[in-house]
Amino acid sequence: MLLDEAPAKLIHDTVLSFNIHGDKNALGRINDSLSELQQARDRRLRDAEHALKKLSRQLSTLENHHAETLSSHSSADHASQILALDTQKFRVAKAATDLEIEGERLEQELETLKMRLSELEDQGVEGGEGERGRRELEDETLLRLKIYRSLGIDLESNDAGSYTKAVIRSNQKGDVHVVNIDPKFSRHFYANYFWRAM
């Protein structure tokens, strides 16, 4: 009978009936794979912790820099600087415009003086008897121009000698007006306009 045999022999025979070497080898390989996987996960975890610490330090540095920038920046000072720069820009623009107008006036005056010099050179040292009346008329015109300039009014003439433009400077108001003179309006109209502009 089967039960008459010794239990040790039965167990030994039973163990031999099962082929467990392949399973043991598979379990060993699984254990090795699990160990390698655990080591890889530990390495990745350490790398992630290292990167997190580095990013935390960078964040702290940037926060400190941001706080310093905010503390050193004043919106009121910035606004006052912008206002001062705008004011300076407008002053420079106005000065440039004034200089341009003055340059045009001086160019016109230079041309007039060149023409006068040419006329005087043509007359010679003594001049002519018929030229005296014209000289007196020109002296009268120059005197009027000087009076206008003393009032802040500069007149500009065209090639024909007619005055077609007036530049009126008002020192009290700080304004400059440029007026085109049209013959269809009377002298009385322009006189009133000039006085109001001054």
TrEMBL record:
- Coiled coil, from the record: 96-123
**Main location group:** cytoplasm
Tagged with keyword Nucleus: yes
> GO terms for biological process?
cell division; chromosome segregation
Cellular component per GO, a single term: nucleus
Similarity remark: Belongs to the SPC24 family.
Tell me the protein's name. Kinetochore protein Spc24
Per the UniProt record, the lineage of the source organism begins with: Eukaryota, Fungi, Dikarya, Ascomycota, Pezizomycotina
- The coding gene here is SPC24
